[in-house]
Design a protein that fits this description.
Four copies of one chain form a homotetramer.
Chain A: E1 2-5, E2 14-17, E3 27-36, H1 39-46, H2 49-54, E4 65-72, E5 84-87, E6 90-91, E7 111-112, E8 124-128, E9 132-134, H3 141-144, H4 147-157, E10 166-170, H5 174-185, E11 190-194, H6 198-206, E12 211-213, H7 220-226, E13 233-238, H8 243-252, E14 253-261, E15 269-271, H9 273-278, E16 283-286, H10 294-304, E17 314-319, H11 323-332, E18 337-341
Parallel strand pairs in A: 10-11, 10-13, 11-12, 13-14, 14-16, 17-18
Antiparallel strand pairs in A: 1-2, 3-4, 3-8, 3-18, 4-5, 5-9, 6-7
Chain lengths: 350, 350, 350, 350
């Protein structure tokens, strides 16, 4: 089969023929229909510091996808050949404290398919049955391929109250953009999108954020205060992972507000804990992955009910063999979510 | 001024001239623009058993309204003459355990304006400053007059998770109908409206419930199970206060689901606690009034953001002097929410 | 091996030799050290209506026990021969909505060992690895055998706030008695134990309930109100499953209080929903089993820390072959928790 | 009357005669029985940077006290002359978003008696009726004078689950020491007290912390991991406000754990947000003051029930005129909580 292969501990990746993977008694072999590209894949491609510490080549990356079941192990009971599926790619150990108390998303021994094991940038991928998510035919294929990052957004936005609340999304990469849609669908009454990149701001407008702000050009603090009665926003969804965005997020958060942090800073961040958290009585939540599987139920229900229009985020569609071109598009800052078609069929936009 | 007066302990009420009420240092005198009629007002009008035990004539009823501030007591600081306002009509004591722990809505010594003291079916009404809710000009007058029952719906629907959840509303009087709109606006993915009265079912359809069901004609249990994967709904908003509706609500609730009860049964109800609550691990919430004032913030934010279309519920608009005609309309089962205009100006529909 | 066998669909049970059970790749064979008797076992013994509808003889009952691992299936990794263990006897399917969202304790397809499959009143019992709970040597054997009902108490008492709160326990069977200890250990400031049986009241006193009340002789409502500033208790743990106890529980619950129901009524109960739940703003929780496995962590931590003195509840210790005598003791109302020793070694009291 | 007066914007304070303060219609005049000294008072005394920015001399400091009502304003109804009282010294505005949604403790316009207005280091102090907390005779006078910092501890420890949980208290000033007692009383199963000062560690031992650790001498990380199965503690109560303590707190916090921060850092702190909060799925709470008045109910219930032994924390008792000597004792690091007797009667230790 054709696959994207990170063959050596160096920048780049190649698209080449490899063997179709074998699978065990409790595994599911999926023929990938659409896979999509995450910032993590770019880290692996560029072979940055994080990648050097985590990735062990050779590796097939890719952890966002949908497809159809091609074959199942002999103990598999919940899906069968032909079923339309996606998957949670964080494989939890099932035995640690977190796994035994409903917090598998922060398992002490998690293994991520596409990072720690061969992933979905290939014609076929192997997934443990426990992690397969069977999809209704009402879920469009394009959306089915982006459930992993959509789940990050759903997990973040719904980690506390959002109905009748104001929210600021700091950082409008794909997850930030999805968060705008999720917040609106779930009753947020004012959504402030904050982003320095103009391509991303343009998409944020298409996602119908109420305010799309450029912190490099505008006095975001004053604007937010003006539109929140001087109190600040109820919720900040931190999606940038940048020091300046995080600090701004804390400044515009109201007393008693919720700061849900998903963006990963690449270095330590200096914070004014006294003013930003303690006196303010703020609640700060670290958000990791998706709740297994509460987030998946919420997310697919919202999609199936037609509550989310995610199309503006999908900017590029290309055959998987054009992977390197996709990487260039991503680095340009002009692309948002890129869909790959490993099996050569490029879906037309619905 | 003109007012509806329940003059004697007997059925009926009269519209007549009374003195404009005096007010104290911490009170606000409001010139009523629109008042709306609640089922409680019909109980008072008909002088049923509940009314006989609670009401001490003479009384001006009416606890749903909006208007403009006509005058303020000398210690009032948060509103001034001319401000557009509504009010929370449950006046809490401020000194009991519940009031001192953020649960004023279940104050041990609550006094309700329009029930225990003269209310809003009059040209003027007196409200303590603490209970005045100042309104933005973005709130339409008609909606401003129905914030009390809308608040019941918001309190009920948002008393737990609703985003990405299914909900059944049992009983489609005005509060049930509002609950449909609130649930949809806050991310509910399937809304089942259950109601025996065909006029109400018709409005439920206009409110865009996903399923509008007649329990007298349809097998509601099977239909709900079919559309919830056999599990039942996540949430039931019980708005009927009838034994059969309550029992049906429990039957269609999923294991671990939430039953939020607002409808008031007039007599004891026999329940199968073992199957309906205990084995099921259900959570049952008694819902009373509106959270003071969290619900008011949520509700006015949702209205101001244009998230709620409530017009189908408002079926009748009439001058206050036609009060008795309104009572007849309500008793016919054909009217839902009736608006009264004490000061003679009947608003045209926006 | 020796086992208690419910051989036929009729009253009674016999203690006889049966084959040691076989076990699968993911199972654990445990040599039972101590097993304890639950009211459910008495239902099975008496062959009452519930038992007739649920139990399919022949069956070895018993779902409370501890012991040592005798052998493990070839895929078992978390325990080994000789380990000291107990087990959660509710075997969840792992695939339903509840199981996939952290609510395995209310699994749609639960199977209970000792009810739906052969249990622990035997020299050996087979348990799936997923349900084994490995014990520290700091847990006394007697306590290790009663973790199932202790877990019911922990689940009930900790299903909401308890620190700095008052609680009434209605019904002082073993779980009610354990609840007294758990509430005290977790910061409850006044514990009211309510029970008609004098033997149980005596144990409630030994458990150091602050007030031990007999509803047949005392005006429980007045006493509770006198000691809660007229407000009522913050929490009711309903352990009786009797109509009168449930109604009394609701009456003494304060506005906004929590009613956590574990006792199973054998018939429908008529409730005054208006006064007892709705106006009161009460929260009613159905409590089923133990949270898997949050409750187990909490419970074994509390026991290991020496926070719970449960000895007064253990009234009888006998060889398993005296099972029928145990049933008589239970029916007399004089025994509370009875320990059985299938392997002939009767532990002396620590 | 005699009072401690911060007369000028410079280091020091004097004890001198001043006029007994007047009071308004809704105020209560209290004759102070015992007042206690907080670190804030030392900041004011030393006239450090914080004090220079916040305090406007002349000021009578002191915000921890108890006493008896000497006189009441004409609108006061809930207390009368002779009543034994303490008070919440954060006076909330009652009109901002936070005040109207049950979060008065983070009021946007809070005014603190003893900081922004004359306080309790005097024979008499004036308190608004809304902030008076009437005490039962079961509360010892010494404890009654330290309810403010005890309330900080109760607010912190009970801001999430504590029963059956492990907790680390970083920083053992009086509030940290109180937190040990509160955690133990509310079911914490292992309490790690972490403190560099040996006097404080000695008191932490008297408070019966399970582990008392000196981070300057011991490998706290390893010790905590050894005693938590390698997972880390469930809860950290951060009471030090020092960079090293905060960082250590995050390191020893388990995945999904709760970090409740009350200690106020005097400068920005650099944090590894990726590892310490985001990947870990931690929840960080800023804790400010006491919940008004939920914390007060919890706290006085715990004290009245005899659940807390706080005596080891009270190290010094002296007449108020020895205030400067108290400041020296505090600066020495040898004293913990110092009680002052403005009216000359030094209580003997119960």
């Amino acid at each position: 089969m054709l696959a994207v292969v990170k063959a050596t501990p160096a920048a780049g990746a190649e698209v080449r023929e490899v063997a179709v993977p074998g699978f065990g008694a409790t595994d599911v072999l999926v023929r990938v229909k659409v896979a999509s590209v995450c910032g993590t894949d770019l880290h692996i491609y560029k072979w940055d510091q994080w990648a050097q510490g985590r990735i062990h080549p050779p590796l097939i990356p890719g952890h966002e996808f949908c497809g159809h079941v091609a074959a199942v192990g002999r103990e598999v009971t919940t899906v069968k050949e032909g079923d339309f599926v996606s998957a949670e790619m964080h494989v939890a150990c099932g035995k640690c404290f977190q796994c035994r108390t409903g917090e598998q998303h922060i398992c002490q021994n998690v293994r991520i398919i596409g990072v720690d094991a061969d992933g979905a940038f290939a014609e076929y991928v192997v997934i443990p049955e426990s992690n397969i998510w069977k999809l209704d035919s009402s879920i469009p294929e394009e959306y089915a391929s982006i459930l992993d990052p959509l789940g990050n957004a759903v997990h973040t936005v719904l980690a506390g109250e959002i109905a009748g609340r104001t929210i600021a999304v700091t950082g409008c990469g794909p997850i930030g953009l999805f968060s705008i849609a999720v917040a609106r669908a779930c009753g947020a009454t004012k959504v402030f999108a904050i982003e320095v990149n103009q391509h991303r701001r343009k998409i944020a407008e298409q996602m119908k954020a109420d305010f799309v702000l450029d912190p490099a050009q505008q006095d975001v603090f004053s604007i937010v205060m003006d539109h929140t009665g001087g109190a600040g926003v109820d919720v900040v969804a931190e999606m940038a992972g940048k020091t300046e965005a995080i600090r701004l997020g804390f400044r515009i958060l109201r007393r008693g507000g919720r700061m849900s942090m998903l963006g990963i800073p690449s270095r330590p961040v200096e914070l004014n804990l006294a003013d930003d958290i303690i006196f303010k009585g703020a609640v700060v939540q670290g958000i990791n992955g998706r709740l297994m599987y509460k987030t998946w139920y919420q997310m697919t229900s919202l999609v199936a009910a037609g509550k989310l229009d995610l199309h503006p985020v999908i900017t590029d569609r290309m055959p998987m063999k054009s992977f390197s071109q996709g990487m260039k598009r991503l680095q340009s800052g002009e692309a948002s979510k890129i869909l790959l078609y490993p099996n050569g069929t490029k879906a037309s936009r619905p």
